[in-house]
Amino acid sequence: MNIAQFIDHTILKPTTTLAEIEKVCEEALEYGFAAVCVPPYYVRDASQVLEKRKVKLATVIGFPFGYSHYKAKRKEIKEAIKDGAEELDMVMNIAAFKSNDMAYLEKEIEEITNVIKENGCVLKVIIESGVLTNDEIIKCCELYKHFPVDYMKTSTGYADKGASVEAIEIMRKHLPSSIQIKASGGIRTYEFARQLVDAGATRLGCSAGVAIVNGEKVSEGGY
């Protein structure tokens, strides 16, 4: 399996430098990764390095906790698209979900998907599966399957628990085929990456993409 084609080469730590952004972009081009995922502050810089080549440019919205107002998220998305982002990884409002405010979440996703589709971009909704029960993951699937979401994504990488095979299997079972799945958080080996793909993931968010492709050992920590 060419695992590189599934990987969103990711750098989202708050101390990220421009030199590091340039490095991950060059690595993505060299290894043939699906995309790079960078902080919103660096989208314009990454766009200049990638120059609309085959590697897609992604950024995060409402990151990492998701509880900013959907109007703020909508503004973030518009600015990111203006700067060159093609894919937007948005954290759902987990606080609203835990409070069972489904009406708010429906309004949020309606507002966000309207902006996304107007601009022909890709939306990945991060549900932070590591802080949800299996029933709550299913509830997320039941909500988002009614909207034009491109991917459901497991994690931000900032919760104690990241991607799991079990979460991917649940999502794949309860989502329509039109919605793909992105696994992220704690993916540090080729073996685990392969397991996630076999379970149904079609994208992998990894800060250790190069090491995974090269079969190198990766230390704990990171996205």
From TrEMBL:
InterPro entries on file: Aldolase_TIM (IPR013785), DeoC (IPR011343), DeoC/FbaB/LacD_aldolase (IPR002915), DeoC_typeI (IPR028581)
Record field: catalytic activity: 2-deoxy-D-ribose 5-phosphate = D-glyceraldehyde 3-phosphate + acetaldehyde
GO BP terms, alphabetized: 2-deoxyribose 1-phosphate catabolic process; carbohydrate catabolic process; deoxyribonucleotide catabolic process
Top-level lineage group: Bacteria
Assigned GO CC terms: cytoplasm
Compartment list: Cytoplasm
Keywords associated with the record: Cytoplasm, Lyase, Schiff base
EC numbers for this chain: 4.1.2.4
Catalytic residues, chain numbering: D89 (proton donor/acceptor), K153 (schiff-base intermediate with acetaldehyde), K182 (proton donor/acceptor)
SUPFAM superfamilies: Aldolase
Molecular function as annotated in GO: deoxyribose-phosphate aldolase activity
Pathway in which the depicted protein is active: Carbohydrate degradation; 2-deoxy-D-ribose 1-phosphate degradation; D-glyceraldehyde 3-phosphate and acetaldehyde from 2-deoxy-alpha-D-ribose 1-phosphate: step 2/2
Chief location of this protein within or outside the cell: cytoplasm
Database matches in PANTHER family: DEOXYRIBOSE-PHOSPHATE ALDOLASE (PTHR10889)
Record's function text: Catalyzes a reversible aldol reaction between acetaldehyde and D-glyceraldehyde 3-phosphate to generate 2-deoxy-D-ribose 5-phosphate.
Stated family: Belongs to the DeoC/FbaB aldolase family. DeoC type 1 subfamily.
Protein's UniProt name: Deoxyribose-phosphate aldolase
